[in-house]
Known about the structure:
This protein has helices at 3-17, 21-25, 27-37, 41-68, 89-95, 99-102, 117-130, 140-152, 156-164, 181-194, 211-215, 218-230, 242-249, and strands spanning 106-110, 135-139, 168-174, 199-204, 232-236. By secondary structure, it is of the alpha/beta class. The protein has a 5-stranded parallel sheet.
Amino acid sequence: MNGIELIHARVVETLVKLRLGHVAERLDAHLSEAAREELTYLDFLDRVLAAEVDSKQRKRVAMGIQIAHFPALKTLDDFDFRFQPSVDAKLVRELATGRFIANGENVLLFGPPGVGKTHLAIGLGRACVEAGHSVLFTGATALLATLAKAESEGHLADKLTFYAKPKLLLVDELGYLPFERRAAHLFFQLVARRYERGAMLITTNQAVTQWGHVFGDEVLAAAILDRLLHHSHTLVITGESYRLKQKRKAGLLSGAAPK
């Protein structure tokens, strides 16, 4: 091994020790680019560090998305705001910055089935992951079943801690099925645990006036709403179902497709 090869091996070893894996893997390519473009030492250093930061960011986002357990790959860029003009696009863009999470604020998405609530929720969750926040997605029914099982097995406190840990907890489809009173109490405990400490994003097809029916207890529903709405942003979608639109286009339903 000659002197240049020895230095090259030592540099790669040092990069690995410093956990600069992307630069270590692409060192030869970076050196060739620097020679070809006649980069100054400072420009070369700037370029390789920027490449390393970009690589780490992509890996962090990929890991965050995996941990979040989103049920589908959805982004805000894919959402058709023209089809759902009732959605406050300006508010959505503001929420996508993730600033609401730092204040422990909640987001409630109201609307009938099929109007894009889950799409928006996933898109916002993904944007928050990209902004550096931990996110966890769960369906309301699955969440309450998990809490009930944990309670029956004697480790409810651990499970509540698990759901309290993410900076943003995303609960989808609240209200599609009414809860038993005990399940409603479990949900209250979770909301109380996260109150002013962690943000929640909830999608629901039920207006707040119907939450007493959803939880089977008007007083309990009021207590839950009091905490969720205290620091909150609300989005109400009043448009038509995307799924009905597609069926209408396919001729499976009568009536013209909306413009």
